[in-house]
Design a protein that fits this description.
18% strand, 55% helix, alpha+beta, 632 residues, 18 helices
Length: 632
């Protein structure tokens, strides 16, 4: 073919591909499913969505404003109750102003102890007790005069330090000149109980001058009961004074704390206000009102979702009904056409799975249909079953071929072993050992003994499966010889002797792995062989043997390729590579173990940072006699 003809053919091919791609797009755009979808979107879904969005926004704003105004009125009502409570408390102190016993207490000169006692008892019984009767909110009452006389009457379940109360009363008396006739002093503590302290100036009927001070300590129970009118789930209600100190809070741990200065300025700026904050995607509404009788501020922190939740139910029901109507319209509108396109889409998804290699898919959805769609899916099932049969035949043939290759290598090993006369070899090694002992060269003696043990293990028994103890003894002899070759070599054996007899392994499995560690971990990278470790671990279902080196390490891509092959047991690339090297490598050891014990066992390369060495694990099965080994 000439160059011109080739270019024309190439252009023609590209043009055909573009036309085919355009046809696919046009087919998608003009498919039944696409047409129905666009009709439904433009004439049903879009109008309902726009109307619903507008209604949602307007209804949410209306509901929120209605809820805020409702809670604001409730806030004002609560504020009135609290102001009335303070006013009633002020009115309850009026009888003390002109009481004869009180006037005698502040006007009389020297009093004997007996007279002082009688006068104090009269004041407590006639005034203090009368004021506290039927009022559980009053903790105690104190009367202190400028002539250093003081009466304290407290009703508390805990022991109160009265010296501390007296000193507090003197401190309040010293500041009373600057106070009004009735004054709310603020938050105090009587024992461990927080109280609100109020004071009433008492003037002498003789001089008309301020001569004494009535101090009343009230607990927060009544304030709490009134504030509970504002309580909504997860809400907070608190009262603070003009300094920012929290006098009352729904969280008792915050009573006595101070609010931040920036927040305090906002609360003190206006007599009442409403503002919202958003923190951690949660919106809160703050409503506050100043007290009329005091300089206090009543604040309510209301969760936005909670205060309008009962009003949002109607909106939620409406949205649900709208959604149901849309779904019913969609199901009726689609009808048979959507059923047809749905079955074809389902078949398309099944075909995509088959393209990715999943042959386990089966049609169970449309197999009972009697029309053309049912025939199409039944034909698809027959095709999948035929593909699975052909795949299993190919896979079985590959496994047989792998078994034959391993048997051929084992036959080659046995042929090599048979070429050596064992008795001649043993006798020769014994002569070398004897001469070494006579010459007092224990290195040669030890090496010859280890080599003799290795040859006996290799040539003395034809069994393929041996105990792990026999294999460990063999690899010890091999490492003893390597120790003489590599002077700096550290051999680390951490082996559970109790389990060695109960574990079976393929003969000559460890030596190829240790040889790989010397060759690829150290020698190929011109590194000194410094460390070889063999560790064993007992697991609940299998036994682990690790061969460890601290050499250069294995490339991560090669490691992943080997591990993938170990899991799937099929990797021709790894097999071909080991064939070229004419060696019994990792794959061959893994395949021998897998064929002898099952696909659950074999090799695995453990994750190690490159340059830190390599860890190869062998997973082996337990024998029936291994129960005591596992439990111990």
């Amino acid at each position: 073919m000439h160059t011109c003809d080739f270019l024309l053919s190439s252009n023609r091919t590209n043009t055909i591909k573009k036309i085919q791609g355009m046809e696919v797009v046009i087919m998608k755009a003009h498919s039944i499913k696409g047409k129905l979808l666009w009709i439904f979107i433009f004439f049903v879904f879009l109008p309902i969505s726009i109307i619903g969005f507008i209604w949602y926004e307007n209804s949410t704003s209306t509901i929120e404003q209605a809820a805020i105004q409702s809670n604001k009125k409730l806030m004002q009502q609560t504020n009135e109750y609290l102001n009335l409570y303070i006013s009633n408390l002020e009115n309850s102190t009026y009888p003390f102003i002109s009481n004869p016993q009180i006037q005698r207490f502040i006007n009389s000169g020297e009093l004997s102890r007996y007279e002082y006692f009688i006068l104090s008892e009269q004041i407590e019984k006639e005034l203090f007790t009368q004021m506290m009767d039927g009022r559980s909110d009053i903790v105690g009452i104190s009367l202190i005069s400028k002539n250093n006389r003081q009466i304290n009457y407290y009703n508390s379940t805990e022991l109160i330090d009265m010296d501390r109360v007296r000193n507090r009363n003197y401190s309040i008396l010293n500041k009373a000149t600057e106070m009004n006739n009735f004054n709310v002093i603020g938050l105090q503590k009587i024992g461990s109980q927080p109280v609100i302290t109020v004071s009433r100036k008492i003037h002498s009927n003789n001089s008309y001058l301020y001569e004494a001070l009535l101090i009343v300590d009230i607990n927060l129970n009544q304030i709490s009961n009134i504030s509970n009118n504002l309580y909504i789930e997860n809400s907070n209600v608190w009262i603070m004074d003009y300094t920012g100190q929290i006098i009352y809070h729904t969280n008792p741990n915050l009573i006595g704390e101070y609010v931040k200065s920036a927040t305090l300025d906002r609360y003190l700026k206006n007599r009442s206000d409403i503002f919202t904050t958003t923190q951690n995607k949660e919106k809160d509404i703050f409503i506050y009102e100043h007290f009329q009788a005091t300089d206090w501020v009543l604040i309510a922190q209301l969760p936005h979702e909670k205060i309008i939740s009962h009003l949002l139910k109607l909106r939620t029901i409406t949205i649900i009904l709208g959604g149901v109507i849309i779904m019913v319209a969609l199901s009726v509108f689609g009808g048979f056409s959507l059923s047809l396109t749905g079955s074809l889409s389902y078949l398309q998804n099944l075909m995509k799975k088959v393209e990715l290699g999943d042959l386990t898919v089966q049609n169970t959805k449309y197999k009972e249909r009697k029309d053309e769609i049912g025939n199409l899916f039944r034909s698809f099932n027959r095709m999948i079953n035929e593909l699975k049969r052909l795949y299993e035949e190919v896979h079985s043939a590959q496994l047989k071929e792998q078994k034959m290759q391993i048997k051929q290598k084992e036959s080659a090993l046995r042929a090599m072993q048979a070429q050596i006369n064992p008795h001649f070899l043993y006798n020769t090694l014994e002569i070398i050992n004897s001469h070494a002992i006579l010459e007092d060269n224990m290195v040669i003696s030890k090496t010859a003994t280890s080599l003799a043990h290795m040859f006996r293990y290799n040539l003395g028994d034809a069994r393929q499966v041996v105990s792990l103890r026999e294999e460990i003894d063999h690899i010890k002899s091999y490492l003893e010889i390597q120790k003489e070759r590599h002077r700096h070599l550290e051999i680390d054996l951490q082996i559970d002797d109790e389990c060695l007899e109960a574990i079976s392994i393929i003969r000559l499995s460890l030596q190829p792995l240790v040889e790989n560690a010397f060759l690829h971990g150290y020698q190929d990278h011109k590194m000194k062989a410094s460390y070889i470790g063999i560790h064993t671990f007992t697991k609940s279902d299998y036994y682990i043997v690790q061969i460890i080196d601290k050499g250069y390490g294995i490339n991560s891509k090669i490691k992943e390729k080997y591990n993938l092959a170990f899991k799937s047991t099929i990797d021709n690339h790894i097999q071909d590579k080991e064939k070229e090297s004419k060696s019994i490598g990792l794959w061959n050891v893994h395949e021998r173990i897998r064929l002898a014990f099952g696909s659950s066992y074999g090799l695995h390369i453990k994750e190690v940072t490159q340059g830190k060495g390599t860890i190869i694990e062998i997973k082996l099965p337990y024998s029936e006699e291994a129960n005591s080994c596992i439990t111990s």
